[in-house]
Amino acid sequence: MSKYHPYLKISPEVQTALQHKRPVVALESTIIAHGMPFPKNKETALQVEEAIRKEGAIPATIAILNGHLKVGLSEAEIEILGKEGPKVVKVSRRDLPFIVSKQQNGATTVASTMIIAAMAGIRVFATGGIGGVHRGAAETMDISADLQELAKTSVAVVSAGAKSILDLGLTLEYLETHGVPVIGYQTETFPAFYTQESKLAVDYRLDTPKEIAEVLRSKWKMGLVGGVLIANPIPDQFSMPPAQIELRIEEALAEAAAKQIKGKALTPFLLAKIESLTQGDSLKANVELVLNNAKLGAQIAMEMSK
Prior knowledge:
Layout lengths: L7 E3 L1 H8 L4 E4 L2 H4 L6 H15 L3 E8 L2 E4 L3 H10 L4 E3 L4 H6 L4 E3 L1 H11 L3 E3 L10 H4 L4 H8 L3 E4 L8 H10 L4 E4 L18 E3 L2 H13 L6 E4 L10 H17 L7 H12 L3 H24 L2
Parallel strand pairs: 1-4, 2-3, 2-7, 5-6, 7-8, 8-11, 9-10, 9-11
Antiparallel strand pairs: 3-4, 3-6
């Protein structure tokens, strides 16, 4: 139990790594409970942790269990989240005090994972794709809390861009307005989750984990509060054809609108529907891009620890 945060419980492995300034990479748990069916979610979570270990860093999967903010889950705890699936509350910033006070289980989004990682002193977080400004946001005002968190919480987030179900242009505009740098890892264009490229530019291209680590150090040493988005394209062999995935996204969005699915339920519904429409191809792509991000996150954390 942390003396600084009474609700925080850090696993012995992660605690030891932090105390000795060894590299640690945070991982979210919404992808376990809401992103994939069991047992694929558990298998993927363990694969992602192993990808981080292979690079020499320590994985710290984050969730809320019995009201405790857990940093570093056991295999048994990952299985609990995997089996309970959507029954586990999807927890963003606004939900944290309620789930903690009721001593419930919760799966952390990008926003809440960033918050808990920062509490624990973890600076690098790898995920699939961030949330952002939803299509049609001019009418719905549906904007993910992930973007606000990136503006105020000093954690670097490695992702395959933003989920392509979103309005990527408005998402980048929002990040620019709030002073969040978007780094393209070995790319000048913003990746679109399932596909390597969009027609949108990143703020800066950096080609090595060392360069990224140097930027992070400079930003935070200057007292510039807030995160950095590191956009890491899905590997070429797993990238899906842009026209094909856009067609499936439009179909999924139309069904969501017809069923009036909104808020927290929208993203899980869309991802599941796209998986069905692509006969599982999108799920395979999702797994591979998360593994790719975990690897890069570990390499950046290694450089940060030097």
